[in-house]
Amino acid sequence: GQNIDQPTEMTATEGAIVQINCTYQTSGFNGLFWYQQHAGEAPTFLSYNVLDGLEEKGRFSSFLSRSKGYSYLLLKELQMKDSASYLCAVSHNYGQNFVFGPGTRLSVLP
Amino acid sequence: EAQVTQNPRYLITVTGKKLTVTCSQNMNHEYMSWYRQDPGLGLRQIYYSMNVEVTDKGDVPEGYKVSRKEKRNFPLILESPSPNQTSLYFCASSLYAGPRGEAFFGQGTRLTVV
């Protein structure tokens, strides 16, 4: 089966850098996605990784190591509006299925 | 405006009364899917569809049905709802499944079955 792990909660200070880790075990891996979800709202896409390495997108970067089944999302220059849940999701079964991790709730403090 | 529209946003119903949650996308996406989100369990895929008339089970399909008669619509049907189906439901679509398949989510439907 598929299994995705993320820390349940994290806290960081405004202006700081935070790294949210995600580990996964799956068959037919096809890509790894990160989504942001504010309370009561729909998830919104942040980034995806298909190959190993770092993908940078403004204040957000995502890293993937397929051999280790590991990814992280790096958020720089944290802002209060970054307080949200961050969902790691794996596309597997050759792209037919998405499996989401339980999400990491990030609180940004002033 | 590109969007995924779900209706209704909120629904309270009684056990056993059939209901349908509609989902429509205007982006000509091939891939559509339904998820439920429960505290501590995250988003779990119920059903997905690779294209018109092509649907398949996700991780938690029991008690649900779907259909994909047109590309834009993907309704979720609960033939006989039970209290354990009380949840927050999301419909999502993407241009295609797999890499670069960024998913766009609807606003969510909060369902309560009493």
The share of residues in extended strands of chain A comes to over 45%
Terminal Cα span of chain B: 36 Å
**How do the helices and strands follow one another from N- to C-terminus of chain A?**
EEEEEEEEEEE
Give the chain pair forming the largest contact, with residue counts: A-B, 25 and 27 residues
> What structural category do the secondary elements of chain B indicate?
mainly beta
Distance between the termini of chain A: 41 Å
Biggest sheet overview of chain B: 7 strands, mixed
Helical residue percent band of chain B:
under 10%
> Got a strand count of chain B?
11
Task: Provide the β-strand percentage band of chain B.
Answer: over 45%
Q: What does the radius of gyration of chain B come to? A: 13 Å
- Mean pLDDT of chain B equals 94
Shape of chain B from CA axes? globular
Largest sheet of chain A: 6 strands, mixed
Instruction: Summarize model confidence as the mean pLDDT of chain A.
Output: 92
Q: Please count the helical segments of chain A.
A: 0
Give me the secondary-structure category of chain A: mainly beta
Number of helices of chain B: 0
The percent of residues in helical segments of chain A reads under 10%
